[in-house]
Design a protein that fits this description.
Blueprint (H helix, E strand, L loop, with lengths): L1 H24 L14 E8 L9 H16 L7 E8 L4 H13 L4 E3 L6 H11 L3 E2 L14 E2 L4 H14 L4 E7 L7 H11 L6 E5 L7 H12 L3 H5 L2 E5 L5 H11 L7 E5 L5 H6 L11 E4 L10 H10 L11 H17 L10 H10 L32 E8 L2 E4 L6 E2 L1 H6 L5
Parallel strand pairs: 1-2, 1-3, 3-4, 4-5, 6-7, 6-8, 8-9, 9-10
Antiparallel strand pairs: 10-11, 11-12, 11-13
Helix pairs in contact: 2-11, 2-12, 3-4, 5-6, 7-9
């Protein structure tokens, strides 16, 4: 009996040792871990919620809807998708906390997220080799880090595009923007677009990001764009504000301040102005009626958005933060489309981890997004010579206008690649 017990004990020890060695060597994966045949792939989406500045709850909401939809179809390439969400809180510590959570949960990518605090979240991701796919584009690190894979040109191409849009119709331009480090780049970019149309630089008007009273900025903008004298009376002034959720607050103050005899043209960029904002502020009677808007994507009424709209209808489960007209939700949808296309390129049953996803992104042929963007590719040869933004691979913008309460394509204006304009712009990062 004693010999039998010793033999059994020795056998269990050998088996346990062999299993442990196999796990360390990567022979298989633990149930529920990222990678492996039929395993679960973990990713994260983070965005600010409940803050005093810009909030993007529709991005995390869209990510969870995508998770439910793709898992209802059997997952991606045989893998179940697990989406973690995190409140970035609009702070460096909040952004870093979300990145560290992605590391701790062994996420293979961070997808379709929003943060101004690129340094805070990119450092932990870079240390673990976790790719950042399809950020909203408000931090310069998203266009500098070799671990970032942007799907649009970020704020830089929007602001340069706004300069192009206004440079064709305005004689004087005033820019109202946040008094922040990211905000400091906006005048340079807007002026690049204006100069391409032989326009003078815009007046740079700063405002606290979380201000509740923009009356001083509204008065200053009017002073720069209406002026005095007969010659000034003939000129057309334009005011553009890029203040995130506070853009509505500014234009409310501007409407109360502006002279009735002369109304400057107003403009902004998608993200600061959206269809839901126009609806909420009166539709056809909205103060944004007639406003010029620059966007990365086709107008929300374009049929190319129908697949996303169906997913929102069927899988958002009444989450009213998920608005298919919202640029944040749209960016998250495109980012997850990229992730899905990349994962489908892995072999059947092939394990998936962050480094393999990164390698595939670096080496794969262009990814199609169903007409929402140009085909996207992040190979070395696809990078652009834009100072401060070398990771831009999609510099396209579209020009829109608010007509009869709806954001529609601006007549006579086709989509435009702003990369050549940005190449000529001074270094901003």
């Amino acid at each position: 009996m004693t010999i039998s017990r010793r033999a059994a004990s020795l056998s269990r020890t050998v088996v346990a040792t062999a299993m442990g060695a196999c796990l360390v060597a990567g022979c298989g994966t633990l149930p529920g871990s990222s990678g492996g045949s039929g395993g679960t792939i973990t990713v994260m989406t983070f965005a600010p919620e409940g803050t005093g500045a810009t909030n993007m709850p529709g991005m995390t909401g869209m990510a969870k809807a995508y998770e439910r939809w793709v898992n209802a179809k059997g997952g991606i390439n045989g893998h179940k998708l697990r989406v973690l969400t995190c409140n970035e809180k609009n702070t460096p510590s909040g952004a870093a906390d979300c990145a560290r959570k992605a590391v701790a949960e062994k996420a293979v990518a961070v997808v379709g997220s929003y943060s101004q605090h690129g340094r805070a979240f990119m450092a932990p991701l870079e240390a673990e080799g976790i790719p950042f796919i399809g950020g909203y584009g408000v931090s310069s690190e998203e266009f500098q880090s070799p671990l970032s894979y942007p799907v649009n040109g970020g704020q830089s191409v929007l602001i340069a595009g706004a300069g192009h849009q206004l440079g064709r119709v305005c004689d004087q331009v005033a820019l109202v923007r946040p008094d922040t480090i990211p905000g400091d780049t906006l005048p340079v970019l807007l002026n690049a677009g204006l100069r391409a149309n032989k326009m003078a630089d815009a007046a740079d008007i700063r405002a606290a990001e979380d201000s509740a009273d923009f009356t001083p900025q509204a008065s200053e903008a009017l002073a720069h764009t209406t002026g005095t004298g007969k010659e000034k009376e003939k000129e057309r002034g334009c005011v553009t504000a890029v203040l995130g959720e506070r853009t509505e607050t500014f234009f409310d103050a501007f409407r109360r301040t502006e002279p009735q005899r002369k109304k400057p043209q107003i403009s902004s960029v998608l993200g600061s102005v959206s269809q839901s904002l126009v609806d909420r502020t009166g539709g056809r009677e909205s103060p944004f009626e007639g406003a010029y808007i620059t966007s990365w994507y086709p107008v929300a009424s374009d049929p190319v958005w129908e697949p996303m709209r169906k997913v929102v209808t069927d899988f958002a489960f009444g989450d009213d933060t998920v608005d298919p007209d919202d640029s944040g939700a749209q960016t998250t949808w495109i980012a997850y489309t990229v992730l899905s296309e990349i994962l489908k390129r892995f072999g059947e049953g092939e394990g998936v981890d962050a480094r393999k996803v990164k390698r595939s992104l670096n080496e794969s042929q262009p990814v199609k997004t169903g007409g929402l963007t140009p085909d996207l590719s992040w190979r070395y040869q696809d990078m652009r010579a834009v100072a401060g933004f070398p990771r831009i691979v999609n510099g396209q913008v579209t020009f829109q206008i608010v007509q009869s309460g709806r954001l529609v394509a601006q007549p006579g204006e086709k989509s435009l690649d702003m990369t050549p304009t940005l190449v000529q712009a001074p270094h901003t990062a």
